[in-house]
Amino acid sequence: MDIAADSVQDLFTTGGGGTLGARMGIQLTEASAERVVGTMPVEGNTQPYGLLHGGASCVLAETLGSVGAVMHGQSVDRPFAVGVDINATHHKSARSGVVTGVATPVHRGRTMATYEIVITDDGGERICTARITCLLRGA
């Protein structure tokens, strides 16, 4: 996915770039190298028991962290971010509404960037904590 070639507005329109974010209903509301915020509906992203699918939380987390990494990568002339590690701890379930993810940097280097993503439910309760590390590549 070539996020670096997209304008910031395109990122907002497509839910972070590519088709998966749009298919999941991800909407970016804020994007910078310091903080990326996005939302995703629970409806349509559930597992058979009616709970938000853990994989859906990972898609939201990877999307937000990757956008942050790309935006940081542009400042070090390495505008392409490739995820090399992601992990998530699911603290609580969500059955309805919208979840919100906030990605903030843990490390921003010249070749790697790591972001922590906290996902909360409509009531502001943490449902997932994720971390993604991206390799930053040049054009």
UniProtKB/TrEMBL annotation:
Query: Keyword Ribonucleoprotein: yes or no?
Result: no
Question: Known Pfam families for this protein?
Answer: 4HBT
Instruction: Enumerate the spans annotated as Thioesterase domain.
Output: 49-128
Arranged from A to Z, the UniProt key words for this protein are:
Hydrolase
Similarity section? Belongs to the thioesterase PaaI family.
What the entry lists under NCBIfam families is as follows:
unchar_dom_1 (TIGR00369)
Protein name in UniProt: Hotdog fold thioesterase
Q: What organism does the UniProt record list as the source?
A: Paractinoplanes lichenicola
Q: What is the lineage of its organism?
A: Bacteria, Bacillati, Actinomycetota, Actinomycetes, Micromonosporales
